[in-house]
Amino acid sequence: MNTTLVCSGGLDSVSLAHVLAGQGRLSRIVSFDYGQRHRKELDFAELCARRLEVRFHLVDLSGLGAALGGSALTDDLAVPDGHYAEETMRVTVVPNRNAIMLTVAFGIAAAQGDAAVAAAVHGGDHFIYPDCRPAFTDAFAAMQDAALDGYAQIALHVPFVHATKADIVTAGAKAGTPFAQTWSCYKGGAHHCGRCGTCVERREAFDLAGIADPTEYEDPDFWRKAVAAHAAGGA
């Protein structure tokens, strides 16, 4: 089953790329420039495609960021520090982002004759992002069945939708993912900041998985305080 993968260049999607490649299923990687605050992640997505020797499609939606304002990922807004599951992280929502990207990816897959589109949405995203939840992925798959009826049958492959970030680290390690060649940080500095929600989640996931984290963080210890504060707040 040839599969088109939507890949941001982050830990989750690059891990899924390696899992799919190990299964002989990965045919291409699709990434998006949607006017995000930095393009660093896209370099890691392209690097992944070259490493796995599959075609890389970079889709230019750069004008979209201005229209989808109000997010710290597309506007000049501060990225908050703290645990990923805190209410403050909602400022990182880009409305309908996954729906937009998946729609384009399904079009590419249909045109190229692939049988599936994969995305690395996972359980840890459910709190913040509605377009990462099972209700969305199920509905989106049904919508694409209707949209491509009579033209193509393409499955939506979301193997991590009920998984934790630690589960993804474990799966990625088994597939030989070079974690140091992935980018998660929302701030886009020289190194991962270690303080934004996605850095905290990344560092915590390696710890829970019991796998060494090769990432260089500007603040390598902040995650412990953020996790403790979140736990105390939820108690």
Automatic annotation (TrEMBL):
<comment type="function">
    <text>Catalyzes the ATP-dependent conversion of 7-carboxy-7-deazaguanine (CDG) to 7-cyano-7-deazaguanine (preQ(0)).</text>
</comment>
<dbReference type="Pfam" id="PF06508">
    <property type="entry name" value="QueC"/>
</dbReference>
<dbReference type="GO" id="GO:0005524">
    <property type="term" value="F:ATP binding"/>
</dbReference>
<keyword id="KW-0436">Ligase</keyword>
<keyword id="KW-0862">Zinc</keyword>
<dbReference type="GO" id="GO:0008616">
    <property type="term" value="P:tRNA queuosine(34) biosynthetic process"/>
</dbReference>
<keyword id="KW-0671">Queuosine biosynthesis</keyword>
<keyword id="KW-0547">Nucleotide-binding</keyword>
<protein>
    <recommendedName>
        <fullName>7-cyano-7-deazaguanine synthase</fullName>
        <ecNumber>6.3.4.20</ecNumber>
    </recommendedName>
</protein>
<comment type="pathway">
    <text>Purine metabolism; 7-cyano-7-deazaguanine biosynthesis.</text>
</comment>
<feature type="binding site">
    <location>
        <position position="193"/>
    </location>
    <ligand>
        <name>Zn(2+)</name>
    </ligand>
</feature>
<keyword id="KW-0479">Metal-binding</keyword>
<feature type="binding site">
    <location>
        <position position="199"/>
    </location>
    <ligand>
        <name>Zn(2+)</name>
    </ligand>
</feature>
<dbReference type="GO" id="GO:0016879">
    <property type="term" value="F:ligase activity, forming carbon-nitrogen bonds"/>
</dbReference>
<feature type="binding site">
    <location>
        <begin position="7"/>
        <end position="17"/>
    </location>
    <ligand>
        <name>ATP</name>
    </ligand>
</feature>
<comment type="similarity">
    <text>Belongs to the QueC family.</text>
</comment>
<feature type="binding site">
    <location>
        <position position="196"/>
    </location>
    <ligand>
        <name>Zn(2+)</name>
    </ligand>
</feature>
<keyword id="KW-0067">ATP-binding</keyword>
<dbReference type="InterPro" id="IPR018317">
    <property type="entry name" value="QueC"/>
</dbReference>
<dbReference type="InterPro" id="IPR014729">
    <property type="entry name" value="Rossmann-like_a/b/a_fold"/>
</dbReference>
<dbReference type="GO" id="GO:0008270">
    <property type="term" value="F:zinc ion binding"/>
</dbReference>
<feature type="binding site">
    <location>
        <position position="185"/>
    </location>
    <ligand>
        <name>Zn(2+)</name>
    </ligand>
</feature>
